[in-house]
Amino acid sequence: MSGNVKGIDHGSLMDRVYRRQRHVYDATRKYYLLGRDQMIAGLHVPPGGSVLEIGCGTGRNLIKTMNQFPSAKLYGIDISREMLDTAQKAAARAGISDRLQLAYADAACFDPEALFGRKDFDRIFISYAVSMIPQWQAVMREAVGHLAPGGELHIVDFGDQKRLPRWFRAALYQWLEWFHVTPRNDLFEVAGKIAAETGSKAQARVLYRGFAWISKIVRQ
């Protein structure tokens, strides 16, 4: 386990937010956390490849990943112990507890060797979490640093909503603020900068008229 003081404070906030919500999270979020399954399908995990989810939440995405890429080795970290407890139980129900390793960690600074006994991953993904992480750019840089050669970082999150009605965007942003969610309208720009800094390649995909974005960084 790892975490700095700010990370621990954020973890306490996430525990308070999700202590009750975690029980209905998957049932309610499916209506607006769009693009998650498209992102998972686009992981194209190599046979026997390793996959880490940052901010694994309820474990829903990792279970979907296992269903799609059954030979994958799965790992997940989260700063909310409440969510990790839910993910452990979901993995047990899905019968994949022995194929999934979960750990409490601050995504902005973590040691995968200490947590999981490995130094890098073929795929890392972040699903609707950069909009909730204050130091999200540091998390992206940390993630790229833990990619194996040829590895990929995939991020799906809220887009800028520019091609949707203004009233919809205003209402959505107000609603998201209540849940400590801030869409990162410069996500593609930041991904491009990180890719340039690390000799990687950035790709961008816009879904549902800008409601959701998928950002991808491929390490060369």
UniProtKB/TrEMBL annotation:
One of its GO terms (molecular function) is methyltransferase activity. Residues 51-151 form the Methyltransferase domain. GO terms for biological process: methylation. The keyword Methyltransferase applies. Keywords: Methyltransferase, Transferase. InterPro entries: Methyltransf_25, SAM-dependent_MTases_sf. PANTHER family: BTA1P, METHYLTRANSFERASE DOMAIN-CONTAINING PROTEIN. This is S-adenosylmethionine-diacylgycerolhomoserine-N-methyltransferase.
